[in-house]
Amino acid sequence: MKIAIIGQSAFGKSVLEALVNKGEDKIVGVFAPPTREGRPADPITEAAAESDIPTFEFKRLRDQEAIDHFKSLKPELCVMAFVTDIVPMEMIDCPSLGTIQYHPSMLPLHRGPSSINWPIINGETETGLTIFWPDKGLDTGPVLMQKRIDIGPEDTLGSIYFNQLFPLGVDALVESVDLVRAGNAPKIVQDESKATYEGWCKAEDVAIDWTAPTSTINTVFNMIRGADPQPGANTTFNGTKVSLYNSSLLATLPENTDDDVRPGRVLAIGESEIAILAKGGSINVGRVRAAGGKKISAAEWAESVGLKVGDKLGS
């Protein structure tokens, strides 16, 4: 088949390389984000150059010039591998065999741009990926293939994506291309009665209120790991925002510990980490990032700001 790829970053690069290495189809063009002056090209752009595949960089895929270039390639299939721009229906409908797209959730659950963050933040124990046929809606098209995975009790956004959804997604897209080529690719209509949608997970969505009735040890822990590494669950110390990473649960506190004074207080400062009290237990934090700074060990940050055992975060 003649395939056009719209994608970016390491995931898009890996999909392109997998299809090139398989050698059963011809990649007629790659549509990638524009290269910024003074910055390296996107990984998918570099991979395309290594394989002598034409690359097209448009600021907006909705522009007529981008649409015309896409149509001129006469692709039989379009593969969308990590796309953040709005792709017009003129592109989606152009290939004779259609367009397929990767989405990191079990559609129709968790439609939207931060579909890996929210299941972890919500405390869910499984998620997955979907290869689907995009239409005019947002992640609403018919399903071609799905793969389900478990969310472990200490999994983070980073571990779920890089260890599971990234490699599994590359394989699923290649497998889906095989099904399209063979004429056996399903088109299963999504069940709208089960649909959920969440927007971008932003820093303000994962700001920790240690004393809120809903801020139990589990909800805070899920928030931290669901936003690790981006956008970073955050709290404050002396009015300065600090984001928390590399967390783990510690032993449950004695039942007679005073709930009113406990949440957000620093329980211990170790060689590299700090322990923070929460409702029902405590959370170990290994790395932090203060506003405007880089990630450093939690103990190093504590020393730099004069944090002591008994101090309260969220102040």
User: Strand count, sense and closure of the main sheet?
Assistant: 7 strands, mixed
Number of domains: 2
Helical content (DSSP H or I, runs of 4+): 25-40%
Number of helices: 8
The termini sit apart by: 59 Å
Description:
The protein has about 325 residues and is α/β, with parallel strands linked by helices. It folds into two domains: about 1-195, Formyl transferase, N-terminal domain (Rossmann fold, 3-Layer(aba) Sandwich), CATH 3.40.50; about 205-305, Formyl transferase, C-terminal domain (Methionyl-tRNA Fmet Formyltransferase, Chain A, domain 2, Roll). About 25% of the residues lie in helices and about 25% in strands. The strands form two sheets. Strands 3-2-1-4-5-6-7 form a seven-stranded mixed β-sheet, with helices on both faces. Strands 8, 9, 10, 11, 12 and 13 form a six-stranded antiparallel β-sheet that branches. Strand 4, helix 4 and strand 5 form a beta-alpha-beta unit. Helix 1 (about 10-20) packs parallel to helix 2 (about 45-50) and helix 1 runs parallel beside helix 6 (about 155-180). The longest helix is centred in the middle third of the chain and has 26 residues, at about 155-180. The model has no long low-confidence stretch (mean pLDDT about 95).
